[in-house]
Amino acid sequence: MHVVRGARSDIPIVVAVHSTARGPAIGGCRIKPYRSVGDGVADALRLSRAMTLKCGLAELPHGGGKTVAVLGDAPLTPPVRENLVLDIAETIRTLGGRYRTGPDIGTTPQDMAVIHRLTPGWAFCRPETLGGSGNSSAATARGVRAALDAAVAHVRGTRAVTGLRIGVIGYGSVGRLLGRSLAADGAEVVVTDRDDRLRAQVETDGLTWSTSDLLRQDLDVLVPAATGGLLSPESVAGCTIPLIVGPANNQLTGDHVATLLHERGTTWIPDTVASAGSIIHAVCREELACDEPETGARIDAIGAKVDRILAHARTHGTTPLQAAHALATHHQPATA
Q1: Binding-site positions for NAD(+)
Q2: Are the CB atoms for 312 and 323 separated by under 8 Å?
C-alpha cells in the first residue's frame, strides 16, 4: 500500500498492490471524491483484491492493483487535474514496474497516454492512434453479454433473452451498449440512472426509463452497470430477481451478501468474472500480441467460465462467489 500527497496537485494518491504472484499487478486509476483518505484507501484495497481474483479467473499473467486519487470538496480544475495525472505517473514510476494502470472512473485513454509516456510503458488502453488498445467499453460489454447469456441458460434453460424483462442500472458507455444489445435481441429493457439528462437518450434507443429502485422491481435479470456497493444486506432483503449479472465493480458491500442472495434464490455472477472483458482485451492486444479475432474469442470464453463456476457451485453446494474463488485459486500461485 502506497499513500502519497501529490507534489504538484496536493491531492492524496493511493496505490494498492495486492499480488504480484502471477506477474506485475494491474488495475485501473480512479479519480473521484471520497469522504476521507481512509475511505479511498479502503476502496483501493477492495478493488485491488478483486483484480487479483479477476486476473486469476481470466488466466492472465498479472496480479491485482488499484490507484485511487482522493478528491475533496475543492473543484478539480483543468490545471489541477493535469498536475494530478503527472503526480499519479510519478507515483507509479516509483514502484519500479510492480504495478501498471489503466482507465477507470474519472480517467481516460488520453490520461493513460500521459502515464505511459512518463513511465516505462506502465499504462494500458492508450488511444489506438498512439499504439494502445483504446477504449475498453466494447470489450467490457462483450464480456458481460457472454456472462449474461451463459447465466440465463443456467437459470432458464435457454440462452435466448427474447421476452425477458431486464433492468440496467447505469447508462454510461457500457450500460448503453448492453441495453441496446439486449433490446436488439428481443428483451424488454428498463433503465435507471442518477443522471436524469440521460432519459432522452434511453428513450431514443427504444428503452424504458424508470426512476424506481430496480432491485424492487419484477425483473428476470438485473444488470448493475454503475458504481459499486449496490448489493447490501438491506438492499437485497426484498429482492426477488432470479439473476444479477453486470459490469459494475465491487457490487457487494461484503462477501456475505453473496450468501444472502444465494439463500433468496438469486443467482449472482461475480463481477470479477462478468467485467473481465476490458482487461482481457488490453492485455491480449498490448502484451500478448493477440489479434482481434483471438482476443474476441478469449472474451467470449467468459461465458464458458461462468458455466464452470455455476457447475462447480451446484456440485459443491456453494455460492458462485465461493466457486469463483476456488477456480481462481486453482490457477493462482501463492500470493506474493
Answers
A1: 170-175
A2: yes
